[in-house]
């Protein structure tokens, strides 16, 4: 079972975990990314390339499912304006064993940061908005997975 969604709406982490918990595995691992307070940033705005983004996320989930023999994976990414403190991204994996579920979850979040076509703008208290460049540390983490 692979679930991939790109949406503007909020998501309920508990509701998203339930289908994975019912797959019969021994482990579910998850990550929720939240828009953090960073200096004078009050919100971020995420844009994407419809169709291409979903295909990219699905491909990553399929790769993780094969590499770690997952029973299921869920990837949800919000777009649009997201205020500080709101959830941005959710990744969850289900496997028979915790090591595989945890590794696959880490892989998915690390790879989607570099492989999925999203563009991020930071909105500041004074009304300025700046596009954010890719981070070298994100690229390095993604490369560690091979």
**Shape-level CATH architecture:** Alpha-Beta Complex
Helix content percent band: 25-40%
Q: Rough shape?
A: globular
Q: Order of SSEs, N→C?
A: EHEEHEEEHEEH
Fill in the CATH topology: Aldehyde Oxidoreductase, domain 3
Number of strands: 8
CATH homologous superfamily placement: Molybdopterin biosynthesis MoaE subunit
Task: Please provide a written account of the structure.
This protein has 146 residues and is α+β, with helices and mostly antiparallel strands. It has one domain: Aldehyde Oxidoreductase, domain 3 (Alpha-Beta Complex), CATH 3.90.1170. The protein is 36% helix and 36% strand. It has a four-stranded mixed beta sheet with strand order 1-4-6-2, sandwiched between helices. A four-stranded antiparallel beta sheet has the order 5-3-7-8, with no helix packed on it. Strand 7 and strand 8 form a beta hairpin.
List the helices and strands and how they pair.
Elements: E1 2-7, H1 13-21, E2 27-34, E3 41-48, H2 52-68, E4 72-78, E5 80-83, E6 87-95, H3 98-115, E7 118-124, E8 129-131, H4 136-144
Parallel strand pairs: 1-4
Antiparallel strand pairs: 2-6, 3-5, 3-7, 4-6, 7-8
Helix pairs in contact: 2-3, 3-4
